[in-house]
Amino acid sequence: MTYPALTDHRYRVAPVRGRIRYVVLFFEILLGLASVLIVWFALYTVYRLVNDES
Predict the structure, then answer these.
(1) Nearest Cα to 44, choosing from 53, 36, 33?
(2) pLDDT, tens digit, for every residue of 17-30?
(3) pLDDT tens column, 31-47
């Protein structure tokens, strides 16, 4: 006995798992870049405060 809902290709769902992997990778890279930018800005701010010539 076969069920039409399982054999009919109209009810298939597109594979989303592969695309989600790329979205997660994109946001992980974005998070890494934001972290580097925050650390750079913090160090630059401390450097400017310490070496203030005025």
Answers:
(1) 36
(2) 678 999 999 999 99
(3) 999 999 999 999 999 99
Under a CB-based contact definition with an 8 Å cutoff, are residues 5 and 11 in contact?
A: yes
Alpha helices in 1-54, H assignment, sequence order: 4-7, 17-50
- Give CA–CA dist 5/7, Å, rounded: 6
How many Cβ atoms from other residues are within 10 Å of residue 52's Cβ? 7
- φ, ψ of residue 8 in degrees (nearest 5): -80, 125
Cα separation of 15 and 19, whole Å?
8
